């Protein structure tokens, strides 16, 4: 079902009223996590001012350590949904557990499946039974083929609204948090009709590398980016080192325009 051979035309996925995979380059931006009402509102203001099409933030956080902040769960989700409505921005947020799918599908415009759950097949089937668009992130040790098969699980349940997301993979390189596999973008575009986004934040783990890799993502044919922006990255509860300052986000949006126009 994901194959371009079977389905030659590009699939356009709608997140709220925002089209992904059409002519426009889609920018989903926001903090790693929902922290406080003030932080969500200030970060939403920043991404809206910069011209983002949708806002991201996690209420359920997949943290390496069980002692790290795990997210506010349902309260965080409702807060994000409220801010999204106030600002007129569709929301993208992660769901980690089958038990939470129904609630997240009620509140969110797009459900994110994180890298760590790319092959959580029960979860893939559960989101496949919703009628919400799914942003499926590539596992950090997954081949592109595995990503496409994970998407197939969702489509096989009847949900064809799937956006793939390259977010960096683990390699021997330790200078950056992950190695952003930009080869995957034109490759995936050849293999499947589904739209593809790039996450240069998790892909690099380093704030000052995010803008160049976001521009590179646009240049190699991505349909959009998922980028972490925090009103005050130094105080972020998670992923501060890779979160853009609001000024940097504005700069990114300005610099993206000529690149998007050129491709
Ligand atoms: C995130 O988007 O904040 C996140 C946890 O991403 P990933 O699953 O790609 O690590
Ligand atoms: Mn993050």
Automatic annotation (TrEMBL):
Record GO terms (molecular function): 3-deoxy-7-phosphoheptulonate synthase activity
Enzyme class: transferase
Domain DAHP synthetase I/KDSA: residue ranges: 17-255
Keyword Repressor recorded: no
EC number of this enzyme: 2.5.1.54
Superkingdom classification of source: Bacteria
Swiss-Prot/TrEMBL keywords: Transferase
Protein name as catalogued: 3-deoxy-7-phosphoheptulonate synthase
Gene name as annotated: aroF
Covered range of the whole protein: 71 to 333 of 343
């Amino acid at each position: 079902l994901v194959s371009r051979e079977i389905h030659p035309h590009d699939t356009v996925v709608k997140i709220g009223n925002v089209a992904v995979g059409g002519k426009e380059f889609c920018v989903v931006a926001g903090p790693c996590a929902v922290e406080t009402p003030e932080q969500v509102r200030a970060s939403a203001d920043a991404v809206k001012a910069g011209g983002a099409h949708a806002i991201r933030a996690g209420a359920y956080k997949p943290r390496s350590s069980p002692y790290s902040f795990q997210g506010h769960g349902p309260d965080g989700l409702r807060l994000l949904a409220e801010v999204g409505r106030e600002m007129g921005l569709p929301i993208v947020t992660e769901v980690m557990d089958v038990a939470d799918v129904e609630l997240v599908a009620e509140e969110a415009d797009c459900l994110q499946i994180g890298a760590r759950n790319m092959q959580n097949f029960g979860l893939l089937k559960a989101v496949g039974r919703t009628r919400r668009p799914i942003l499926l992130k590539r596992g950090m040790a997954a081949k592109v083929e595995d990503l496409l098969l994970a998407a197939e699980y969702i489509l096989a349940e009847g949900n064809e609204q799937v956006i793939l997301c390259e977010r960096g993979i683990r390699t021997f390189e330790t200078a950056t948090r992950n190695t952003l596999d930009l080869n995957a973008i034109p490759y995936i575009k050849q293999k499947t009709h589904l739209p593809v986004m790039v996450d240069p934040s998790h892909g690099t783990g380093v704030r000052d590398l995010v803008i160049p890799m976001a521009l590179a993502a646009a240049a190699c044919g991505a349909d959009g980016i998922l980028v972490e922006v925090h009103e005050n990255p130094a105080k972020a509860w998670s992923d501060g080192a890779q979160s853009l300052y609001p000024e940097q986000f504005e700069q990114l949006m300005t610099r993206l325009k000529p690149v998007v126009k050129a491709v």
